Amino acid sequence: MTYDPMQKHEQFIMDMLLPAIVDHARNIGVNTDEAALAAFLSLGTVLQSTGLSTDDLMAAVKASAPTTHDAPEALQ
Description:
By secondary structure, this protein is mostly helical. The protein has helices at residues 7-28, 32-49, 54-63, 66-69. The protein starts with 6 loop residues before the first helix and ends in a 7-residue tail after the last helix. The model has no long low-confidence stretch (mean pLDDT 86).
């Protein structure tokens, strides 16, 4: 079994972060995609301000795509 460092965050993401985004979207009357994109852009800004490069951020986005995420580890 391969250790996935993101597993330790999965419960927080599923139980708190995603429901907060959905609730926020519902409360202000926008679609969930818009609220998720706003959260993503804000988090991307924070990460870049702490030193993460745009290239690394884009590589992380691309690596999280379902086709890549489910691929064998050597292809990720």
